[in-house]
Each structure stands twice: as structure tokens, then as C-alpha cells.
């Protein structure tokens, strides 16, 4: 039985659809279908193919080690990697570039402001010829108005937003990591970290972190090491207000 057939059979035994596996692993459905057909061309290389096999195996509840070994036997062992390949997400993230104001428009606005100010000063100099006595004769005394004491509103105390700092250090085995924002599911990072790698993220809102091989990593949140009592793929949630008290969901 091939790698794809093993993963497809395990998925059916787990009662999961390809869509559900895609939602858990953040891997496109088309790539999962190709992998179940033992077609790894859409994975983007051997490094990402191994990471996808490990992620899918963790989602459907099967051991990824023999599948990775079979892949290495068919495609060759892991070769040298560039540092950029380790931290580059498997799916490129499109960032919408903000358009800066046109320089010509800025220059026009500045010139109009200068011309307007100069015109105002010119008109003011003609209306006030500079005779203090004549100017003072036209001044009338305004009736006194009893002022009402103003009530100063008490200042609103400022609240300094706190951050949640998450650090992942990989041990002797690689680990697939997915970090998303808890509010809208937006992806912050996705990738497979090799042995010895470490990364740190600082976020201002609650995040979810999914670990494909939690037994191989050391997880630190806000400077405190987090105990992980499972070797199966696990999802943990952290928030700036909650400190280091995660709500974990295995599987």
C-alpha cells in the first residue's frame, strides 16, 4: 500500500472528509487529494512534502514515521537546506501594499497653503495702516458676562495593551508549527522547523498554536515554560490577558 493509500485509509477510518483535514492542517484540499494519489508535485519540494505527510498523518491519527521513511526511500533522504527555506511559509502570503500620496499632490497643497497665507497677510496690512490712536478709538467695551465655573472631567486612565510572547525551541526531531489569530483565524506562521531551530512571536491578541510533534519542542509563553503532556498533535490557545494558562485541545 502506498503513502497516499495509507493516509486515505486512515482518514476514512477516522471518519474525516478531505475538507475537515484541510481545515485542521491548513493544507489546500487539492494538495491533500494529490497526496492521497501519491502525487507530491504540488507540495513545492521534498521538504514541504514531508511536512504535509506529517501534518495529515497527525490529523487522521496515524503514525507519520513509517510514511516519512517510505517517502525518503522513494525520493531520497533530506538534503541540505537554506536558512530561508526553514522560515518561509509553505503558502506565500500576499501583502497589500499601501499607496503613498503622490508627491505632486503634496507640493500643490503646500504651495496653495503658502499663497493663501501670503494673501491673508497682504489684506491685513491694508486694513490696519498702523495708527495706534485711530485704532484704539474704534474699540468698544463689551458688556461684562458672568462666567460659569467650568467642571473638569476626570481623565480616563490609559490602558497599556499587553502582549503575549511565544517561543518555540525544537529538540532532536523536526516539528510542524501553525500559529493563527484566535479572533479571525488569520495565519501568522506555518512551517516545519528542523532540529535545533527556535523562533519567537510577539502578539497583542489571543493566538492559537498547533504543534504537529509536541514531544520534540520546548514551548515558552511570557518567559514561562509550558508543560505539554502529549506526543500527539495538539492545539493550544494563549491570550495577553490570560497569561500562561492555555486552553488545550488535542487531536
Q: What report would you give on this structure?
A:
The chain is an alpha+beta fold. Helix content is 36%, strand content 18%. The chain has eight helices and nine strands. It has helices at residues 3-13, 18-25, 29-36, 46-60, 64-75, 83-87, 103-127, 132-137, and strands at 164-170, 175-181, 187-193, 198-203, 207-211, 217-221, 224-225, 234-238, 249-250. Strands 3-2-5-8-9 form a five-stranded antiparallel sheet, with helices on one face. The protein has a four-stranded antiparallel sheet with strand order 4-1-6-7, with no helix packed on it. Strand 2 and strand 3 (187-193) form a beta hairpin. Helix 2 (18-25) crosses helix 4 (46-60) and helix 4 packs antiparallel against helix 5. The protein is elongated and about 95 Å long. The two termini are 25 Å apart. 24% of the residues are buried.
For the largest beta-sheet, the strand count, sense and barrel status come to: 5 strands, antiparallel
Structural class computed from helices and strand pairing: alpha+beta
How many separate helices? 8
Number of strands: 9
Write the layout of secondary structure elements.
Elements: H1 3-13, H2 18-25, H3 29-36, H4 46-60, H5 64-75, H6 83-87, H7 103-127, H8 132-137, E1 164-170, E2 175-181, E3 187-193, E4 198-203, E5 207-211, E6 217-221, E7 224-225, E8 234-238, E9 249-250
Helix pairs in contact: 1-4, 2-4, 4-5
In a few lines, what is going on in this structure?
The protein is α+β, with helices and mostly antiparallel strands and 251 residues long. Helix 4 runs antiparallel to helix 5.
Amino acid at each position: 500500500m502506498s503513502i497516499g493509500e495509507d493516509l486515505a485509509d486512515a482518514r476514512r477510518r477516522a471518519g474525516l472528509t478531505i475538507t475537515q483535514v484541510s481545515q485542521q492542517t491548513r493544507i489546500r484540499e487539492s494538495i491533500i487529494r494529490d497526496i492521497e494519489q501519491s502525487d507530491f508535485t504540488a507540495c513545492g519540494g521534498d521538504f514541504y512534502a514531508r511536512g504535509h505527510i506529517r501534518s495529515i498523518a497527525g490529523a487522521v491519527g496515524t503514525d507519520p514515521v513509517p510514511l516519512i521513511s517510505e517517502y525518503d526511500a522513494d525520493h531520497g533522504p533530506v538534503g541540505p537546506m537554506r536558512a530561508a527555506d526553514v522560515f518561509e511559509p509553505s503558502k506565500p502570503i500576499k501583502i497589500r501594499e499601501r499607496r503613498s500620496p503622490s508627491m505632486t499632490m503634496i507640493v500643490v497643497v503646500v504651495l496653495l497653503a503658502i499663497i493663501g497665507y501670503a494673501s491673508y497677510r497682504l489684506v491685513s496690512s491694508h486694513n490696519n495702516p498702523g495708527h495706534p490712536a485711530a485704532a484704539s478709538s474704534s474699540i468698544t467695551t463689551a458688556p461684562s458676562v458672568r462666567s460659569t465655573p467650568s467642571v473638569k472631567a476626570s481623565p480616563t486612565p490609559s490602558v497599556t495593551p499587553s502582549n503575549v510572547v511565544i517561543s518555540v525551541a525544537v529538540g532532536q526531531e523536526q516539528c510542524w508549527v501553525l500559529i493563527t489569530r484566535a479572533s479571525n483565524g488569520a495565519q501568522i506562521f506555518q512551517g516545519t522547523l528542523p532540529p535545533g531551530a527556535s523562533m519567537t512571536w510577539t502578539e497583542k491578541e489571543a493566538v492559537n498554536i498547533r504543534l504537529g510533534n509536541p514531544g520534540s519542542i520546548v514551548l515558552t509563553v511570557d518567559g514561562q515554560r509550558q508543560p505539554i503532556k502529549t506526543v500527539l498533535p495538539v492545539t493550544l490557545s494563549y491570550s495577553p490577558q490570560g497569561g500562561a494558562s492555555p486552553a488545550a485541545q488535542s487531536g
